[in-house]
Amino acid sequence: MTNTETETRAVVVEREVAFPPEKIWRALTQSHLIEEWLMKNDFKPYQGHRFNLSADWGVVDCQVQAVEPNKTLSYTWDTKDLKSVVTWTLTPTNTGTHLRMEQLGFRPDQQQYYQGAQYGWQRFFTNLEQVLARIE
């Protein structure tokens, strides 16, 4: 039996993008590129590295959990009372890459955060695709 009071929800965004995993990886792991599509940051792609993402509305405290170059990147995403984990998965396809982002950890009482993340990640993905189209 599951307890719906303690179950967490996830926001998942998946897209087929016409770029190789190596190019997407650069946009996910190079600080100056992350700033262009997500937020200001002091990210470094090393397991255990603590970093911040910052925007006009506040700061997100993060820590890198897993790094598998060109395949998987995972980090905590802690802001106010939301404790979650963001995981990126890159899978090569015949036409580019299947890009999947999952943010897991939304409690039932965090509907506002959940809805905000659903909207926000769609916008971030659009920004990411614009950066990918522009960089070498």
From TrEMBL:
Domain of life of the source: Bacteria
UniProt-listed Pfam families: AHSA1
SUPFAM superfamilies referenced in this protein's UniProt entry, alphabetically: Bet v1-like (SSF55961)
Activator of Hsp90 ATPase homologue 1/2-like C-terminal domain sequence ranges: 19-132
Protein family (similarity comment): Belongs to the AHA1 family.
Protein name per its UniProtKB record: Activator of Hsp90 ATPase-like protein
